[in-house]
């Protein structure tokens, strides 16, 4: 399937903007996302600058049957996300975008859908040149977002042409929304993720979401957003204990078809960071051949 043909030069969707303010405490947490996990060392891959962000090509990567699987990551130092891709062992390349510590820069930038398509087109041309194959095309596209990166992912949900290109979605300790007057999750700001969750539940997409126990106070936490999605799916969490390779302590889980929510204990910056560095664990759950 030639997926590149689905990417228009200019999407005609209307552009709007919803800004969620982030308090100073979360800015401090987000600054840590620039750090690479100390045990991983230098990234084993090639890094190529794009108009925004970087294209990361693991040393082991090879196109398969003229197709390339892509992980499109939002928020954190590119080498941190790239290291997690490499640790996952997935035969894919990554576009890593880091444009600020808030959700609003990602929201503002990707409110223009041309920016997403431009990155895909630029990266594909570079890969066609790198592997001397002008017929190379994208196959499975997985969007991953950590912390404030959800601002960009939420924009992707608004544009049908982009939504249809995204086969899988991983949200790492995100999203958030503003509160309604009743201090509830703002349904308008989570509607796109609910749509994706419903499609994943039906087996049309794959959606993995993780959350910690951080309580921002002035806007909806990731736990509250997870609860909103679970309630909308008329589901229930099940208790979950133990730890994973990143020493993340399990708390609860929910699963409906290909939609999964993993709840983890912890309300500190260090626990928040584990969701980012644990990306490789969740990438391994994505069926890139589906």
Overall shape: globular
- List segments where confidence is low: pLDDT < 50 over at least 5 consecutive residues: 1-32
Number of domains: 1
Mean pLDDT: 89
Structural class: alpha/beta
CATH topology: Rossmann fold
Largest sheet: 10 strands, mixed
Q: Under the CATH scheme, which class?
A: Alpha Beta
Number of helices: 10
The string of secondary-structure elements, in order, is HEEEHEHHEHHEHEHEEEHH
Instruction: Report, as a whole number of angstroms, the end-to-end distance.
Output: 12 Å
Topology (elements, then pairings):
Layout: H1 24-31, E1 45-49, E2 54-58, E3 67-74, H2 78-88, E4 93-97, H3 104-110, H4 114-130, E5 137-146, H5 150-158, H6 160-165, E6 168-172, H7 187-201, E7 206-211, H8 222-232, E8 238-239, E9 250-256, E10 259-264, H9 269-277, H10 279-283
Parallel strand pairs: 3-4, 3-5, 5-6, 6-7, 7-10
Antiparallel strand pairs: 1-2, 2-4, 8-9, 9-10
Write structural notes for this entry.
Helix content is 34%, strand content 20%. The chain is globular and about 55 Å long. It is built from ten helices and ten strands. Strands 1-2-4-3-5-6-7-10-9-8 form a ten-stranded mixed β-sheet, sandwiched between helices. The protein has 290 residues and is α/β, with parallel strands linked by helices.
List keywords for this structure.
Rossmann fold; disordered N terminus; 290 residues; 10-stranded mixed sheet
